[in-house]
Structures are given as C-alpha cells and as structure tokens.
C-alpha cells in the first residue's frame, strides 16, 4: 500500500469518528496505544482439599490402568497431575503487554494486526482475560490477563483494529470442562 493511499485511509477513518489516537496518526509511525503489566495467566491459590481430591482421583485412575496393564498411560496420568500441581502451586510471573498501531506485543512476541482475527473477554478464576484469536492455527488464540485494566478501556483501543465478539459459541471441550467442574468440583468454592 502506498503512503498516499494509507494517509487517505487514515483521514477517512478519522472523519468517521475514530478515536483520538487514530485521528493524529501519521502513516509508518509506530505509536504505543496501551501498555500494562499483569500476571501471565489467571491464578488462584488452591486449598488442601484440591490437592487431596486430585490425588484420590489420580490413584483411582492409576489402579484401573494398572488392572488393564496400561503402564504408559499410568505415566501420562502421573505427569499430567504433576503439571497440574506445579501450575496450581507456583504463581505466574508478571508479563509486559503492549498494544501499538502496528500490533500487539506480549513480552518478546509481536503479532501484527494482519495476523489477528478478532477478540473477546472472558472471566477465568474471577480474573478478566482478553482472548485474541489468530488466523494461524498456532497459536490459535492469545490469552492476556488484564490485571488492573478495565475491559472497556481495552475494548476502545482494540476496536479500530479488530472486530469484537460479544458471544463465542462454546466448543464441545468448553462445555465438557464446565460440566465437569460444576458437577465434580475438586474443592468447595
């Protein structure tokens, strides 16, 4: 795209009532629109009941797998429980997030606006999380914790670049996980 065409496009967007940061935007100038620091993933401190219930379920599954001589699956179950315990025990470190006129930066990873598809918000463990879907299969979706940032502020910065989805149809895996967590809680809320 030529510079003249890009400039007329920016003027067109500015005349249609775009936010202030786009009205004064010069083409080929990278401008930081929003930057914040927040934990890398939603985290909630778990109780002893969580660990005990998880261990009992793991032992039950291990006995069943042992009876069917599935030793490799026993190792897989053991390793998955170990990872779950590690993630539940160790709090995440803080990440630096930045939204600019070029795209989104998460620590050292940069995503151009052309690589991103749309965005929506979801609460996980009582924490607001911004989900940005990508065109590529990998990573597929970028999950960003908002920390102290409000949803409305993040939405107002992202709307000129990406479409917002108020509702995302849950997949079979989402429905299954919700059903399991509701009917078989590992700890009392």
Write down the overall mean pLDDT: 87
Helical fraction equals: 40-55%
Tell me what the CATH architecture of the largest domain is.
Roll
- Please give the alpha-carbon distance between the first and last residues: 54 Å
Q: Are there runs of 5+ residues with pLDDT below 50, and where?
A: 1-17
Q: Tell me the number of strands.
A: 7
Q: What is this structure's SSE topology?
A:
Elements (H helix, E strand, L loop, with lengths): L2 H13 L4 H4 L8 E8 L8 H20 L3 H19 L4 E7 L2 E4 L2 E4 L3 E9 L2 E8 L6 E5 L5 H8 L13 H12 L6
Antiparallel strand pairs: 1-2, 2-3, 3-4, 5-6, 6-7
Helix pairs in contact: 3-4
Textual characterization of the structure:
The chain is α+β, with helices and mostly antiparallel strands. It has three domains: 1-30; 31-42 and 94-169, PH-domain like (Roll), CATH 2.30.29; 48-90. The protein has six helices and seven strands. The strands form two sheets. It has a four-stranded antiparallel sheet, covered by helices on one side. Strand 5 (116-124) and strand 6 form a beta hairpin. Helix 3 runs antiparallel to helix 4 (71-89).
């Amino acid at each position: 795209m030529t510079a003249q065409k890009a400039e007329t496009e920016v003027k067109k967007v500015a005349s249609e009532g775009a936010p202030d940061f786009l009205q004064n935007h010069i083409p080929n100038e990278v401008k930081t629109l929003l930057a914040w620091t927040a934990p890398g993933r939603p985290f909630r401190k778990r109780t002893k009941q969580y660990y005990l219930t998880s261990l009992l379920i793991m032992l039950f599954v291990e006995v069943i797998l042992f009876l069917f001589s599935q030793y490799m699956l026993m190792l897989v179950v053991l390793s998955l429980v170990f990872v779950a315990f590690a993630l539940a025990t160790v709090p995440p470190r803080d990440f630096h997030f930045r939204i600019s006129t070029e795209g989104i930066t998460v620590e050292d990873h940069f995503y151009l606006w052309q690589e991103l598809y749309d965005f929506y918000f979801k609460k996980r463990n009582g924490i607001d999380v911004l989900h940005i879907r990508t065109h590529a299969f990998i990573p597929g979706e970028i999950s960003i914790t908002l920390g102290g940032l409000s949803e409305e502020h993040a939405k107002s910065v992202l709307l000129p670049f990406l479409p917002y989805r108020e509702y995302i149809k849950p997949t079979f895996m989402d429905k299954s996980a919700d059903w399991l967590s509701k009917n078989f809680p590992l700890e009392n809320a």
